[in-house]
Amino acid sequence: MQSRQVRESDLPRICLLPESAEELFYCFPRASFPLTAENVSKAIAERSDSTVVELNGRVVAFANFYRWGPERCSIGNVVVASSVRGAGVASYLINYMTRLAFDKHQAQEVTVSCFNQNIGGLVLYKKLGFRPYDLEERIDHNGNRVVLIHMKVGRNAV
């Protein structure tokens, strides 16, 4: 497994990572299914440190920072291929992004947000030391009320 900066040639593979409207809502809440290269390109242009994880030469995960700086970095657009879930790819990616926030951006804390229905994500973030600090009501892709759980980990907690 290795991480690297995203390349334009990765866009078609990134677009295939979310396999349903629900999965897409978790990682790109404002996008419509299926994910398009334009959505990904826009996110890359507006965000920092867009990163992919490769496994056996194949792009299997993507994430970036939607906020970055010495106070806080916020990880967003996290998506992992269903074929590698449970294999440590998400942990690898989030740990990589957290180290990048602390080392490159000198962030004091790293935040991530996860919808209440995303049980796998919530369990992962807790395992990696993230703790909830706020809740935000949202409306999902089907018009249902959901909760976005904001979590953080401090520099000294890692």
Brief description of this entry?
The chain has 158 residues and is of the alpha+beta class. It has helices spanning 11-16, 21-27, 37-46, 89-103, 119-127; strands at residues 2-5, 48-55, 58-67, 72-80, 109-115, 131-139, 145-154.
Number of strands: 7
So, CATH architecture?
Answer: 3-Layer(aba) Sandwich
Whole-number average pLDDT?
Answer: 96
User: What would you report as the Rg, rounded to the nearest angstrom?
Assistant: 15 Å
Binned, the helix content reads 25-40%
The span between the termini is 21 Å
- CATH class placement: Alpha Beta
Classify the fold: give the CATH topology. Answer: Aminopeptidase
The fraction of residues in strands falls at: 35-45%
- Characterize the largest beta sheet: strand count, sense, and whether it forms a barrel: 7 strands, mixed
Q: What's the helix-strand series?
A: EHHHEEEHEHEE
CATH homologous superfamily label: Gcn5-related N-acetyltransferase (GNAT)
Number of helices: 5
Describe the structure.
With 158 residues, this protein is of the alpha+beta class. 30% of the residues lie in helices and 36% in strands. The chain has a single domain (2-157), classed as Aminopeptidase. The protein contains 5 helices and 7 strands, in the order βαααβββαβαββ. Strands 1-2-3-4-5-7-6 form a 7-stranded mixed β-sheet, with helices on both faces.
